[in-house]
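I trust your eye. Have a critical look at both lines of this record:
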Amino acid sequence: MNGINYFDASDFSLDETLLKKKGRKIYVVFSTCGTREADLIYDKIHLLRREAGSLIDKIFLSHRRIGSEIEPTESRAREADSGVEILINNDIPVPDMEDEKGKGSDMRRALYRINREFVNGTSRDDVILVFLDADVLPEYFGSHFVTGLAGAVLSGYDFAKASFWREMGRVKKYVAQPLFSLIDHPKIEKLTGFAYPLSGEVAGTLAFFNSVNFWQIYGVETGINLDTCFHGRAVADVNLGLYDHNHQPDINIQRMAFGIIRTFFIQMIDNGILSLEDGATISDVFKANYIDEKGERQTFSFRLSEKKYPPLKNLF
């Protein structure tokens, strides 16, 4: 199973997934920041507890506070499930990390704490984590997110990645998929098989997540996808159907695109597929010159230097 195998979420019913579980643990992790998902998180956790509670051993809220006080997102999560474990990523010390922010860094902090406090003697191969974005619009969310992704991992795959139809998907369509087709090399041919390579809905064993590099911000999905290629991991692509969340403004899309391209090229260099010559380096600065809606010339630049964290297994 070194390639990508394809499934529909409907291939894994709740009853069938429960039979496959065989004593293994399933943890669901929602990623949130500030108050932006406060109105969404209650319904999602409540739905999962109602429809798939017998499958899920624990739900975690991997949360970054904007301030220092308890935020409505945390309160609403607890209202939906009094047993939800809230991981405040502002306060989780990890030996090889500082105070940097970003989706990937917060995922890694949450994983570190789960490793330290919630394994309780269980083999890390028998702990399955399902990471879910909390901002999916309610009409598209369902328990099939968990049964589909966890069901694939319980069927023997190291890593399961969600795919779906989404109306916009600009970075996926116009950046990631063309970029992942650019270099023809047997080690990375799996990249073109991901139907939605940037999806945040993923599942894998704790051992798998402990074995991959995590990129700090925009490169986290690209980095994990590449690690599945370079290390020959068994991957399932699970079709969740229709999907959407609030769309990002163009400036954020450009930031994401730059981060993904930058991660891709650094990983190609780190793994010996590409090399830069004649003093060339990978830039940390994105610069653009453009004409705005008033017909006036503008310039734009931002600095992006994402950290690439080594596998967590090095810390245990």
